[in-house]
Amino acid sequence: MAKKPLSKTTTSSKSSPSKIPTLKSPEVAPTQKKPPTSISKKKKPIDNLSILKTSPYLKQSSKSQTSGKHFTLKELFERNLLSQKEEKMEIILSGQYQDALDLMYEADASNLYPILVGPPGIGKTTLCRYYAQLRAEITGNDSFEWITFDESTKPAHLVGSFNPATTIQKGFSFEAFNPGPLIKSMLNGGLFLANEINRATEYTQNSLLEPLEEKTLAIPHIGRIKASPGFFFIGAMNPSELVGTHRLGEALKDRFNVWIELDYPDKKTEMKIIEHNNPYYKINESTLEKIYLIINRTRTHHQIQTPASLRSGIALARLTGVAQKKVKKDPDKILGDIASNVLFGAIQTKPGVKINDVIKNIISQVVGSA
Ligand SMILES: Nc1ncnc2c1ncn2[C@@H]1O[C@H](COP(=O)(O)OP(=O)(O)OP(=O)(O)O)[C@@H](O)[C@H]1O
Ligand SMILES: [Mg+2]
Predict the structure, then answer these.
(1) 276 CB under 6 A from ligand 1?
(2) Of all protein residues, whose CA lies closest to atom 26 belonging to ligand 1?
(3) CB 93 within 8 A of CB 272
(4) CATH code at 309?
(5) In testing the pocket of ligand 1, which one of 310, 311, 316 has its CB within 8 Å of the most ligand atoms?
(6) N or C: fewer beta carbons within 10 Å in the chain?
(7) Domain that holds residue 305
């Protein structure tokens, strides 16, 4: 069951930043602001100190309460160690995400390797991490390794390397070998996620050819291992014309048999994702929709080269939620005031276009003049 082929639509180039928007504080120039229009009189605004003190994001769980105690590095490490069982992940699975997940199951069951392709912040890594959780529940094998590639990633980061001091004492032996994530995954018959795979150089990409075709991998001085049954490899990448990416070599490309394209989700799904990722300071449906409209306009605006991702919508929702607690002002006005602080770094305009002008234009289209 093949998905539609990739459509390469997103391009990017650096535009010279103009004025950085400053955080607009209502306390700074209250006389220049319009009076509040549609806010309930019962709502009592709270100050910076209280908002920070009561923020659930800053609250520590009872397990990690410090109460003035100083922890050793080891204690801190153990306290913060991720345990799959404790951190159960939930995601939104409507629209394209359920289809993509279905294909991942099917690829896994057919012993084929899928690759997720889509613009930044579309949910590729989230979906893979979620699939790893489901796979662990189904198979009982929770081996999940992942690496995010860049220019400096070398084959040794995948395979592993010998500790020089131990190698001098004991030679090239198992005791001296620190296994890399790919070897661990192959030995465990686990899931390996190669994130941003097209940011790897050709040299590093080539080191994946043998594991993906033969399911074998050579450890220098030790021997060649065969992957245990269950070894599953998922790639994820941004479309290859984005800045900072290499082309995926033809040989490596040919080893991915299931291409899953993710694009910006439909309105309903994106609004659900924004809501899901804004668990504490809730905003109403109308504000949520306006956030979606602002973000979506960046994707259709003719002067924008790189539009805003899901992350920007989530950031806008969280910031708006907190600001609504603090400021006694029309929710639209609050959103309009802070949207530029999120969008400024999230979008790139075409050469010669002033970013602040575009942002102002989008905000005024959705919530009126900011
Ligand atoms: N299906 C989803 N359900 C809930 N949240 C999601 C979903 N998809 C994406 N998100 C949220 O969107 C944000 C971006 O997702 P993610 O990091 O997975 O994107 P990505 O495609 O891997 O981006 P990049 O290309 O930059 O690595 C995260 O905060 C994530 O929680
Ligand atoms: Mg990612």
Answers:
(1) yes
(2) 120
(3) no
(4) 1.10.8.80
(5) 310
(6) N
(7) 265-370
